[in-house]
Amino acid sequence: MGTYNEEAAIGTVLDDIERVTDGRAEVVCVDGSSDDTPEIAREHGATVIEQEPQGYGVAVKEAIETPDRPVVVTTDCDDTYPMDALPAFLDEINDGADVVSGDRLYHGAAAMPAFNRFGNQSFAAVASLLMGERVHDTTTGMRAYRREVIQDISWTENTGLSAELLIRPLMRGYDVRERPIEYAERLGETKLDPIEGGAAIAKSIVTVCLEERLRRF
């Protein structure tokens, strides 16, 4: 997890992870907070790597690369994602999936602001068109990856990293599966500007899709 001023929710999220994994998960938080997020994370047993705020992708990249585990799971720390779904994600990996991606939009995502929901639907439509393969949620923060998949990919994006880590494996023929998840109202304030962030994500989707198409030649 990349964490930034999430003291309202981080404890709940880490308690849920502890419960559903029977304490077997190694939790890494890459943190640039000015509140009590890192202290709360440490109290709940997480490894905290402090980092100057440099954006979503920089933090998540560090978090993914730190643990030496065969399967890496990403999630947000604002309590919007259902940690109870983690065992099902891992079952899919054990069944042969290379990437399992949570689809927030399948059930409607009523807790998501309407503008954000429309933006995420639009991102998925554009990515599907450019890839020639249907995807439903390109920017979800909840995914499970086989380590060798993320080691095989050169990451280039920051704000758009979540889309990149779905698009590149899909276009390289990995077994990528989307799994519907419930999406809850976040605790604490959002950090992403919907206009500026949305533009960056859209640019990332177009750039990564074109790079992957050119890579085939």
What layout of secondary structure does this protein have?
Layout: E1 2-3, H1 10-20, E2 28-31, H2 37-43, E3 47-50, H3 56-65, E4 71-74, H4 86-94, E5 99-103, H5 114-131, E6 143-146, H6 147-151, H7 161-171, E7 176-180, H8 194-215
Parallel strand pairs: 1-2, 2-3, 5-7
Antiparallel strand pairs: 4-6, 5-6
Helix pairs in contact: 5-8, 7-8
Written overview of the protein:
The protein is globular, with a radius of gyration of 16 Å. The model has no long low-confidence stretch (mean pLDDT 94). It has a four-stranded mixed beta sheet, with helices on both faces. The protein has a three-stranded parallel beta sheet with strand order 1-2-3. By secondary structure, it is of the alpha/beta class. It has helices at residues 10-20, 37-43, 56-65, 86-94, 114-131, 147-151, 161-171, 194-215; strands at 2-3, 28-31, 47-50, 71-74, 99-103, 143-146, 176-180.
Q: Tell me the helix content.
A: 40-55%
Largest sheet: 4 strands, mixed
Q: What is the distance, rounded to the nearest whole angstrom, between the alpha carbons of the first and last residues?
A: 35 Å
Radius of gyration: 16 Å
Number of strands: 7
Structural class: alpha/beta
Strand order of the largest sheet: 4-6-5-7
Give the mean pLDDT: 94
Order of helices and strands: EHEHEHEHEHEHHEH
Shape: globular
Question: Which ranges are low-confidence, i.e. pLDDT below 50, for 5 or more consecutive residues?
Answer: none
Strand-residue proportion: 5-15%
> How many DSSP helices?
8
